[in-house]
């Protein structure tokens, strides 16, 4: 059974220290920066929190405790990946097999980090251009109204909206929820990925261009080489926030709404739908079907395959 994280630790990681509040007036829930704090967060992670790393990695609430939360310190240069790697290896030497395995999974993410930064160094144009150029043919009509709903967390999909509200206040979201936000913007709202990069980049306390643009395009399906992932917000909500703890925390309007209603919000009008929250702005099933049809056609096209060869040559064989 998953352990529900204690509020005290969440607040520590989200930096609710009274003594810092004066300085952090504008962002009282941000992690505290600096090398000293980064080292403390690291020690606490490898000594305690790492034991639930894998089981919690996709869960919006539990990941806040059991993921390392080192990304801002790495992005701002408070800690170096080399230092983190070496001390993790040292900790592994005195850990049991289960913990070693958890730390290996953490280390694999650290490798991804450098791998993506290397890709960005080789092709910095991907900040503005499709990674796989064949997707230049995929043109989506911009809809400022939908973009605004997404940016403000008012899409009518509870988990999507809770994620955006949480991100705006704390500057942090786990990987799966970031991926879901991008998937939602590009596949469900059918907006060009370039419309969303600045907004999330501004919100992330750990903004790292080398990771950000590549990951954004992975989730938007414009990389071409990888298996396409589309995240259904209803499914994510049931699997990763089954008791709606995260959703209710960031959308208190759902406090009295029964949990099954929250997970199905807007699917069917219901007697219990008492929360003062918007209903879904678009039909999810239709939107996902369109996205699947279009992307699968693209994936099979000769142009995408040709570009995949170029990408492989540059980033894998080159
Ligand atoms: C659309 C999108 C945008 C993203 N933008 C950023 C960004 O600007 N800056 C950023 O640091 N991460 C970004 N990520 C990757 C990932 O979500 C965060 O690194 C991670 O959630 C940070 O939490 P953590 O430190 O607790 O991670 P842990 O799981 O503890 O991982 C340890 C470290 O490995 C690196 N890492 C973890 N996951 C990934 C990944 N999927 N790809 C590359 N490196 C990874 C990070 O440096 C992280 O601190 C993005 C992901 C997506 C889907």
From TrEMBL:
InterPro entries: Crypto/Photolyase_FAD-like_sf, Cryptochr/Photolyase_FAD-bd, Cryptochrome/DNA_photolyase_1. One of its GO terms (molecular function) is FAD binding. Its cofactor is FAD. Keywords: Chromophore, FAD, Flavoprotein. GO terms for biological process: response to light stimulus. It comes from Leptospira ryugenii. The keyword Metal-binding does not apply. Residues 106-292 form the Cryptochrome/DNA photolyase FAD-binding domain. This is Cryptochrome/DNA photolyase FAD-binding domain-containing protein. Binds 1 FAD per subunit.
